[in-house]
Here is the input.
Amino acid sequence: MPAPLDTAEKITQYAHPDRLVSTDWLAQHLGQAGIVVVESDEDVLLYETGHIPGAVKIDWHTDLNDPDTRDYIDGKGFAQLLGSKGIGRDTTIVVYGDKNNWWAAYAAWVFTLFGHEDVRLLDGGRGKWIAEGREVTTDVPAPEAVEYPVVERDDVTIRAFKEDVLAHIGNGPLVDIRSPQEYTGERLHIPDYPEEGVLRGGHIPTARNVPWATAVAEDGTYKSREQLEAIYQEGGLGLATDDEVVTYCRIGERSSHTWFALTYLLGFDKVRNYDGSWTEWGNAVRVPIVKGEEAGEAPASLN
Amino acid sequence: MSPPSDASSNLPATLAEIREDFLALPERERLQLLLEFANELPDLPERYASAPGMLERIEECQSPVRAFAEVDGDGVVHFFATAPAEAPTTRGFASILAQGLSGLTAQEVLDVPDDFPMSIGLTRAVSPLRIGGMNGMLTRAKRQVREQVAARS
Here is the structure.
């Protein structure tokens, strides 16, 4: 039995209003049976400093990644993880996190790879909850483990690999959601500060640059449907909801935020996130890149 | 998992002790110790609070961190850092270096093995990518010490 939907006007405007909840909604429904709140942050210690009461922590790096292969955990690992957090297959999961939900959206994307039906994002994330002076606690819940079925991960529908992106160039839109400096190739890294170590700067040929934050209002929530349409659809990037779109960034976390907006807020059917993103593409052998502000053409060698 | 052999040598007592404290704990509990370090990070001294030269802002994914290693008139190093409350991991790393490097001689700081951050048992609990932030701070601290020593000779 899924939790009731948030009927706030802003949220009902979106294509899939069952995917987003406001802080008001969460405050009202906190602690209800069938809902588990998950915090997923960039900073692995942030949850320990205080979190929404009852929320469990799932860390993208240490919980969702396979330690031995550069990939996500498998169906068995996922079942074990979610079950241990008291999440069943029919649980309503509300995910929130720091940095306007970058990692929360990333976690939601991974949950969706396993087809978890009811995953919602908390609009505005951790920042908004705290800015509103709502309750936080350092008490860590000890949920009773529940049975979660072993489900095979679907790596086709919303996930793109390097080979998929190579085949996609020239055949469909690519959205690069990094900063303009990363897109042009001007910036690779900050002096003396190791990032994810990329050999070349630039972007995937034909990719257009719409930094992820373009979708975010000042309070960290998603912009209204109308505003998002003006950014990504007619009058903006010009995408159509039946376009096959691939999003990417540097490791796939910020582009999950855009994947979420296109898919659930605007109703695009076929958006895939390329989680290898620039750390893979910028280092890979025999893949073309484009430097500068122009999107560039599909290289003839790919046809 | 035994620490890399390089980190065992040349490690000043304070850093060696910090490492032992981490390694003595089960992996999950190491985060709690890192949080304690985060909470212990002293405020930036007033004289550095607004110095733009030492502000090394980390764009995008990383949290803004300000850090500076100072070599005083007696050749002793002091490491100061600040990071926002929303970045406890960064604060924890900075605090480890503040406690571990402060009081050392310039040469002792330069001799700290570069892989120290990788050797304190946090790569799995925190993830190697995040440890990169601490590597960066250590690298910067060494560079700052080197520059100050060079300027005086």
The beta strands of chain A are 20-21, 35-39, 56-57, 92-96, 119-122, 159-160, 174-176, 208-209, 244-248, 270-274. The longest strand of chain A covers residues 35-39.
